[in-house]
Amino acid sequence: MTFYGGKELREVYRLAQAGGYAFMANNIAEQNVLIGLLQGYDERKSDLVVQVSPGAAKFAGAGDKLAGLRSLSQQVKILGDRFSIGVFLNLDHFTTNEMDLIGIAISERLVSSIMIDASKEDYDENIRIVRKVVDMAKGSDILIEAELGKIKGVEDEIASLDAFYTDPDEAVEFMKKTGADLLAISVGTQHGVSKGKDVVLRTDIADKVHNRLVENGLDVPLVLHGTSGLLADQIHEIIRYGICKLNKDTRYQYEYARAAHDYYVSHTASIVPPKGVPDDADGLFSKSDWTPVKKDFDPRAVGRAIQERIKKVAMELIDQAGSASHSIVGGS
């Protein structure tokens, strides 16, 4: 079995911080992205952290978030068991709207960790909500990630027009009062589509947060959200300041769309009837000399193209984060 809980995930992040590398946390909403990630991470011999947002759970469950979460969790566990790496599942940006789901995820051990996002609330309310989830998860072997500060942009069902940087001193108090396991900080990244060259990373804030936590005896893995637009050198730089988990969602969405687009454009002649041929899909063009090529319009064909594209990008990002050859399966 290669699906692991919070105990192993905590060790994975501890080793990453000590070793000066990080792990990409990759969002999924369906199977093709998951398979591509598993293949890429297995080839690079890196442990894999996948994430499910509330919107992804809703999509995967045909409108039912719980059904989608259970389905995706089982896919991660069953497919992950085929590969020789550690596989972890995180709930990403779950809010007070999903407290019932969080409770079920804990009781059914569907995940390895949970990110409770109460960052839109005021400081004290953020602490109260995170503390509640931490208490819910006690004894479950599930880590809890919290966020202090706000990331600008739109991510799934979460939107913020403004960014607010994390205060290093508040971070110490916040972690002491909440008892959370991981802390997502705001240092200038942006959810959604952004241009890395336009992102001004406040590495000084990340450095101060990390140092303040260490000085106060808090061994806290730091998380950076909204990293899809960062350039490779920016990723290398930010990892130096205690960041060991970097979230990736928008990048994979784009690569998925490009893979599907490129595939269908290159197979237009064998899928779309040429000019002058009636679009007789009901009869599968039985009245025409032209017929589509079944192996080209089979959904599995474009699915394989998507999987291969995701695998390629995943390996590039693994190399950027430095997590290749770092797996709890068989040792690092």
Q: What's the domain count?
A: 1
CATH architecture: Alpha-Beta Barrel
Rough outline: elongated
Read across the widest sheet, the strand sequence of neighbours is: 1-2-3-4-5-8-10-11
- The fraction of residues in strands falls at 15-25%
Quick structural gist:
This protein is of the alpha/beta class and 332 residues long. The chain has helices at 6-19, 31-44, 54-60, 65-80, 99-107, 123-137, 168-178, 203-215, 232-239, 250-266, 268-271, 294-297, 299-321; strands at residues 23-27, 48-52, 87-94, 113-116, 143-148, 152-155, 158-160, 182-185, 190-191, 222-224, 243-248. Strand 4 (113-116), helix 6 (123-137) and strand 5 (143-148) form a beta-alpha-beta unit.
Folded structure, characterized:
By secondary structure, this protein is α/β, with parallel strands linked by helices. The chain has a single domain (6-252), classed as Aldolase class I (TIM Barrel, Alpha-Beta Barrel), CATH 3.20.20.70. 47% of the residues lie in helices and 15% in strands. It has 13 helices and eleven strands. The chain has helices at 6-19, 31-44, 54-60, 65-80, 99-107, 123-137, 168-178, 203-215, 232-239, 250-266, 268-271, 294-297, 299-321; strands at 23-27, 48-52, 87-94, 113-116, 143-148, 152-155, 158-160, 182-185, 190-191, 222-224, 243-248. The strands form two sheets. It has an eight-stranded parallel barrel with strand order 1-2-3-4-5-8-10-11, surrounded by eight helices. The chain has a three-stranded mixed beta sheet with strand order 7-6-9, with no helix packed on it. Helix 10 (250-266) packs across helix 13 (299-321). The model is unreliable at 158-162 (pLDDT under 50).
